[in-house]
Amino acid sequence: MAIISLEGAEFFAYHGFYEEERKIGNKYRIDLSVSADVSMAAADDDLNQTVNYGDLYAIISQEMQTPSQLLEHIAHRIIEETYKKYPHIEWAEVSVSKYNPPIGGICHRAVITIRK
């Protein structure tokens, strides 16, 4: 088994519980890891027998374009789409970070992590 990860994918998007957040937008960071058997890909040097991290980025990018109120919902959608594309993966873990969340104080990022 191997772990394939994308770390620090950044997007500007329009998510948030408050209407103002959905109007002005914010910067987000996504980290996505999946576990899969890559032994055939490693032996044969065949991209079709592994998880293509370009596909993972495309999934993240697509889901970041759909506004959501909750970071949990974004993470859930990313994981579900990852399993649709790669049903053979053993597990997937995604962290969604919102920079400078509107909490009335100083906070670099709010983060939700889901593993399935």
UniProtKB/TrEMBL annotation:
Enzyme Commission number(s) of this protein: 4.1.2.25
GO CC list: cytoplasm
UniProt keywords, alphabetically: Folate biosynthesis, Lyase
Highest rank taxon of the organism: Bacteria
GO molecular function, one term: dihydroneopterin aldolase activity
Reactions the enzyme catalyzes: 7,8-dihydroneopterin = 6-hydroxymethyl-7,8-dihydropterin + glycolaldehyde
Pathway: Cofactor biosynthesis; tetrahydrofolate biosynthesis; 2-amino-4-hydroxy-6-hydroxymethyl-7,8-dihydropteridine diphosphate from 7,8-dihydroneopterin triphosphate: step 3/4
Family as reported in the entry's similarity comment: Belongs to the DHNA family.
Function as written in the Swiss-Prot or TrEMBL entry: Catalyzes the conversion of 7,8-dihydroneopterin to 6-hydroxymethyl-7,8-dihydropterin.
Stated name of the protein: 7,8-dihydroneopterin aldolase
Organism field: Rhodocytophaga rosea
Annotated gene: folB
